[in-house]
Design brief:
The protein is mainly α. It has one domain. 59% of the residues lie in helices and 7% in strands. It contains 4 helices and 3 strands; from the N terminus they run H-H-E-H-H-E-E. A 3-stranded antiparallel β-sheet has the order 1-3-2. Helix 2 crosses helix 4.
Length: 90
Amino acid sequence: MSSRQERSLAAAVIELACRLSGVGAGTGRRYATGRFLGTAVRALPAQLARALGWPAEIARAELDGLVTAGGAVRSQASTAPHLARGPERR
């Protein structure tokens, strides 16, 4: 299995789990965003949107909200304006 196929499979599993559990619709979005960052480490809004089937604006808003709440930080290593990653693990 290629790495692209593995990523596609992972995204499909996440999407199916979210649809079945109702995560990703409303208050569960913040939780889903945090979980996604916990596995992806870094994510652009477009990546989050694709993985969870959200519009890009919602994904950007959820990443921004997670940054504001202290659950993620903006990466200083990229020029991408909305790149975020989970807080450093200790």
